[in-house]
Amino acid sequence: MGYRDDFYVVDNVVGYTGKIQESPTVYFESESEVGHITQVHDIKSNIGREAVFSREGYSATNTDEGGEKVRLLEFEGTDLVHESRNAMVSVEGMSSNDQAVLAQSIWKFQEVKSRYLKKHK
Questions:
Q1: Does the residue 109 lie in any domain?
Q2: What gap in Å lies between CA 40 and CA 75, rounded to an integer?
Q3: How many structural domains are present in the chain?
Q4: pLDDT above 70 covers what percent of the chain?
Q5: Tens-digit pLDDT profile for residues 21-41
Q6: Tally of CB atoms within 10 A around 117
Q7: What residues make up the domain containing 52?
Q8: Residue 1's pLDDT is what?
Q9: Is residue 34 a part of any domain in this protein?
Q10: CA dihedral in degrees (104, 15, 109, 7; nearest 10)?
Q11: Which pLDDT score, from 0 to 100, does residue 51 have?
């Protein structure tokens, strides 16, 4: 069994960042929680399932923040908690083949990110 198999399920996939055919980061949301699976990252401890956290006070938006590149910014209240490397693409209207590509992250990456191992084993 993987970390939070009750949350990291196909029905909770809401979008992705990066290129879909190059192991994108896949974002998940339920009515009460959020998280993502990072498949590729230069920092090895940042690969895997994000520790799931409450949606209360959570917001996310694509913005260029005055720069040249649009990125996904995630906030808890007014605090920036995550700045993605890319903009998020919604699964809304996505083909079933592309949705299947995103779903692969669920079985490929079943462990919580190693930086969280002491907290969430």
A1: yes
A2: 22
A3: 1
A4: 96
A5: 999 999 999 999 999 999 999
A6: 13
A7: 10-56+87-120
A8: 84
A9: yes
A10: -100
A11: 93
